[in-house]
Amino acid sequence: MGPLKLLSQAKGMLDEIGSLGDRLRELEPQAPDVTAGACAFLHGDPVPGNLVEGKDGLTLIDWQCPAIGDPCDDLAVFLSPAMQYAYGNAPLSRSQEEAFLLAYGDRTTIDRYRKMAPVYHWRMAIYCLWQHAQGEPDYKTGAELEIRRLKRG
Questions:
Q1: pTM of this prediction exceeds 0.85
Q2: Helix 107-133 vs helix 3-17: crossing angle, to nearest 10
Q3: Are 87 and 79 in contact (CB under 8 A)?
């Protein structure tokens, strides 16, 4: 989607939650100057619950949300503290996140993800507060974890 579209989408959700999102309005990141990456086949929901370990390593399962787009979108979902928390894990540490990105191997995508990370974390924090406003209480913790990650830089 690119940074401007991601920010616009997040602002739409922010408008829906009113004063619940005031703190996040103050944390809005600037759109980074990034070149669009090559489109790739995406899983769409690469969360810990959709990974199984076998003799050959990890395999993604549950392909209900496939898409074509920027691989950074899948990286952002997996690296999201809120999504890790939603599946019973602690957010990844800096060293775990770095190891994951280095294992990914595509330097251009990794560099683009790093520039886009504040936008992804801001959008996920807003999404979590939006879910909380819809009556999903557990998402409030997810929002707090995303805000903490956003502030960490």
A1: yes
A2: 10
A3: no
